[in-house]
Amino acid sequence: MSKSIESETLSTQIRDSLRDDILAGRWAAGDKLQLVALTKHYKTSSTVIREALTRLVGDRLVVLKPNRGFFVPTLSLDEIKDITELRCVSEEFGIGLAVKRGDLAWESELIAAHHTLERTPYRNESDNGELTEAWDRAHQAFHAKLLEACGVPVLIDLASTLSDLAQLYGRWAGRATRFMDRDIAQEHRDILAAALDRNADVASGLLRTHYETTLQAILKSGVEKETAERGLEKAKA
User: Rounded CA gap, 140 and 117, in Å?
Assistant: First the structure.
């Protein structure tokens, strides 16, 4: 393997690790991502870390502030409202195409993705009761598989980016959302059934309700206020 290919592979691996850690809530909203600390943690060079962070800027999971460095995005309730609406509109269109174009192989893979989601532990057994990283991955995989058969790469890429951003907000609000009266497993079963029945109207409606219910949980969590207060404490320190 050439050095250029090895370098690209390493950069991708570090980018994926950073992405997973950001989505898992390793850092709080607005935290600065220190190059020296990241270099030590991921056991690689500052050049590779910088390349990975720059790629994540393009995915909107990292913010680059001139002369200040890289940061985890701050919270904005207006933004998550817009993200949710854009996600609903794009995926309503995407699922409509998917149920028309999806073949038997897609159905089988969708059922398998849902089976993995059903069998993956939902929340940690610890007192904080946050969502497990494994469930988050299975959840994203199921929703990605729903749209896969639409055959529109741009839409699929957009859905992936919006899913990451929504997951980030959901992770930060995770402890509060456990108190919602919601059967999320049944929501996924209903979405799966509608997709397999090739009922685009029902499937799109269920997806919108699914995402809007998550939005309401985030809005009620008070996570934006907590983050702002934490930011003020850091500024005074």
Answer: 9
The sign one gets for the Cα dihedral 25, 186, 160, 89 is negative
Q: What is the identity of the amino acid at 43?
A: K
Report how far apart, in Å, the C-alpha atoms of 143 and of each of 31, 65, 87, 137, 180 are. Answer: 29, 32, 11, 10, 21
Q: Give the residues across from 65 on adjacent strands.
A: 69
Task: Show the domain range for 101.
Answer: 77-224
pLDDT digits (tens, 9 = 90+) for 172-197: 665 555 556 789 999 999 999 999 99
**pLDDT tens profile 102-148:** 999 999 999 999 999 999 998 777 656 677 889 989 999 999 999 99
Contacts of 89 (CB under 8 A, 6+ apart): none
pTM above 0.70, yes or no: yes
Q: Compute φ and ψ for 41, nearest 5 degrees.
A: -65, -45
CATH number for the domain that contains residue 55: 1.10.10.10
